[in-house]
Write a structure and sequence with these properties.
By secondary structure, this protein is of the alpha+beta class. It has one domain. It is 34% helix and 25% strand. The chain is built from 4 helices and 5 strands. Strand 4 and strand 5 form a beta hairpin. The radius of gyration is 19 Å and the shape is extended. This is AMP-binding domain-containing protein.
């Protein structure tokens, strides 16, 4: 499998392909990000999914700490239930802004609709 195709004019196409055939998916059971996360949960037997490093008091960063697939999914479920609990409507006309530092919680909150169709 190639991740890039080069053309005679020097242009390139970034895609997964075998010969001339574009590969639409690596796995038959994965079509969406939600599918990929669920497959990762199953295949890794709830292995590591999301890593982060805490900033130390001296300005350095500590070792990676990991959240498992189930921990990430469960946290996104809790956020979704919290939004429902305060009656935030789902739909194309609902907008939620997140003002935060780059943290695991930001990424997790951005995945609510992917994991749970909030």
């Amino acid at each position: 499998m190639h991740l890039e195709k080069k053309f005679k004019d020097g242009s390139r196409l970034a895609a997964c392909h075998i010969g001339e055939e574009l590969v639409e998916t690596y796995y038959d059971d994965v079509r969406t990000i939600s599918d990929a996360v669920r497959r990762g949960l199953r295949e890794s037997v709830d292995g590591r999914m999301l890593g982060y490093r805490e900033k130390q008091s001296d300005g350095s960063v500590g070792p990676y700490q990991w959240l498992s697939y189930k921990e990430v999914i469960d946290r996104s479920i809790h956020i979704a239930y919290g939004l429902r609990g305060i009656r935030v409507q789902s739909g194309q006309n609902t907008f939620i802004g997140i003002l935060a530092k780059n943290r695991p919680e930001v990424w997790i909150s951005q995945q609510i609709d992917l994991f749970h169709f909030y």
